[in-house]
Amino acid sequence: MIAGESAARAYCAGLVDEEAMERLAAFAAIVAEENERQNLIAKATLEHMWQRHIADSLQLLEHVPRETSTLLDLGTGAGFPGMALAIARPDWTTHLVESRRKRFEWLADVAARLGLKSCAVHGSRLELVDSFPVDVICARAFAPLPKLLELSARFSTRSTAWLLPKGRSAAQEMEALPANRRAMFHVEQSLTDADAGILVGKGRPAGL
Ligand SMILES: C[S@@+](CC[C@H](N)C(=O)[O-])C[C@H]1O[C@@H](n2cnc3c(N)ncnc32)[C@H](O)[C@@H]1O
Questions:
Q1: What is the interface pTM, i.e. ipTM, of the complex?
Q2: Is 98 in the pocket of ligand 1 (CB under 6 A)?
Q3: Could you list the residue ranges forming a coiled coil in this record (predicted)?
Q4: Is 104 annotated as belonging to a binding site?
Q5: Ligand 1 centre from 74 Cα, in Å?
């Protein structure tokens, strides 16, 4: 378990190169600054930025298939996990979808400021974004699982990986799926929260 800010930074440093670490630090400062203007993350988590947000996002890299080159993050909000992953893996094409204007304009500005050329910000409701196939779909705190799958299945293929941090409700949400959709998922323990799980899946949800 990653406990504390220095452990979280050390964990991230073990996953990404120095340039990405510098960008992640710059991003952390930008989020904290913007949080004065718009409510991006809970104030209580500001002093735990690396553990609660950055390492929490980067831990998804542990479950990403080796051949990944495209990622879609649903409801990116403050940039977690999508922007943090775009910084960690600038060689991927990362699509961030966010419907709130203030947030998507800010995300696009951050991507430009950090020089993330392969990070596309879709400022729209997910329902209105044209379909394209991706290697990985991720989402944190976006929607209940059945709704999430309904809205995003059209971006998946037989080989798409699903990485869904679901907090305490991970196992319960998975168990509540119909059997043919449940079969594509299993729960991985979160490294940043002893009580949280990550739903890891593969494929296109049955019937969607
Ligand atoms: C609870 S926040 C989570 C933000 C971020 N993923 C995180 O964990 O810090 C959910 C975000 O999803 C966005 N959102 C909700 N429904 C959406 C939709 N249908 N299409 C695109 N974005 C949506 C909201 O505007 C909000 O920024």
A1: 0.99
A2: yes
A3: none
A4: no
A5: 7
